[in-house]
Amino acid sequence: METKDTKDMKDMTDKEKLETVLRLLYPRERKYYKREDNPTMQEVTFEVTDNGELRYIISCLLRTCILALDSENDFASPRLSNCSKEMTIATVLDLVDSILPDAQLVSYDAIEKLLLTK
């Protein structure tokens, strides 16, 4: 995605490039839900120290799903006998999909294109 700011990259000073990078990084895109359609819908957030921690959390959730899919039987705990293995895994995978930093990754591509031009 080429913006007005990234069109003339060769003509930009270092300060202008830095200002463009800061605009790309902040503010991050947030999802807003229409409360009129569903008054009980809520947005839940959690804090991470950096992108490495977010990647680690996503990786752990995916590994949990892999382990659950590899197990021969349903969940072993008697307390979880009423849980559907497939629905539980699908719920975790849906969570993973929703916390993937899509907008961040797009901004990183734009920053890379801006700063690493030849």
How would you characterize the overall build of this protein?
It is a single chain. The chain is mainly α and 118 residues long. Helix content is 55%, strand content 0%. It has five helices and no strands. Helix 2 packs antiparallel against helix 5 (102-115) and helix 3 packs antiparallel against helix 4 (85-99). The longest helix has 20 residues, at 51-70. It is elongated, with a radius of gyration of 21 Å. 2% of the residues are buried. The mean pLDDT is 78.
Form type: elongated
Query: What structural category arises from helix and sheet content?
Result: mainly alpha
Terminal CA distance reads 18 Å
Cα-atom Rg, whole angstroms?
21 Å
In short:
With 118 residues, this protein is an all-alpha fold. 55% of the residues lie in helices and 0% in strands.
List keywords for this structure.
single chain, 118 residues, mainly alpha
Spell out the blueprint of helices and strands.
Layout: H1 4-7, H2 14-25, H3 51-70, H4 85-99, H5 102-115
Helix pairs in contact: 2-5, 3-4
